[in-house]
Amino acid sequence: MKRKIKVREYNHKKRPHLKFVVNSREAGQRKRTFFETKDAADKFAAFKERDKNGSEHSQFPTSIRVMAQNALEQLKPFGKTITDAVAHYVAHLKASERSCTAAHLVKELIAAKKADRIGERHLYDLNNRLKVFAEKFDGQMVATITSKEIDTWLRSLQVGPLTRNHYRRAVVLAFNYAVRCNYAPSNPAMGAEKARVVSKAPGILTVTETARLLEAASLDVLPYLAIGLFAGLRRAELERLDWSEIDFESNLIEVKAANSKTAMRRHVELRPNLRQWLLPLRKLKGNITPELGFREAFEQARKAARITDWPQNALRHSFASYHLAHFNNAAKTALQLGHHDAEITFAHYRELVKPKDAERFWSIKPAKGAEVVPLVA
N or C: which end of the chain has fewer CB within 10 A? Predict the structure, then answer.
């Protein structure tokens, strides 16, 4: 009857770190294996007990079988097998072989976005943020970059939470491209934590400030201000808007897909008071924003209106707030703004102004006696 393989205590002054020993046989020879912990010795003894019937093959050494047993035990809590682990790691190695550096990824992505003809402002912003990412991970293959590394980098940026999330979004976009190109097996940026952003009410102009601004504006900047306030176009949409896209017969302003942030065409209502502001200035064609002197004219109007602190996106945010308060229809306001979700519009702009102020806002008209000039090119 074969003896059971047991774990025995071991004590030797020259090797004090070894506390246990297992006596076994390998290839017909007696062998002693030493361990620092009883747990490791017990596992080895159990393995050798199962193996002592001679099933071990010469091409499959004990060390490999012990390694496999340890691997199985580590994978067990996750419900995975050695096959799963090997498949995952081989995919990682293959991706690493096909991978590229962070700098190369950014360069290739920006070139692709240029070819896709995305907006210049968006392209500029994307390039600037990803340039910081490429400098941080300079020389590192993107397939080896982890969520933790991206997380640490994002937290190290000396920026506010909203800006940090903009950086994260840019890197997520870059890694989505990397996955499509087989430069990375997955997108680690998705695992990076988003910064908590405390929402603030958007800044808007009061009814009095709005009236003073329009009264003080010179004729070359007045269309830009009036359309921004009473039609709510985005700054980039205003800068690209042509007089030919304002239909005074249908009372609609066309925002073409090529000029829209969302790349979707939409029509915005030409409200009665806006129509009165624009009629004396209308043209057959030509950009509503002057190429020269716009910034100076804008600043002069702001100062003359005694508006010292100009809120971010003040024209568009004012339109949205007064429109929602006056018409009490988030879906209608969202449609004018070009938002995909009326809930976002409702959450951002409700209760910013009172209905009576909204009524006054939509009654702001040019002084009586303004002439409607003949339509000119």
Answer: N
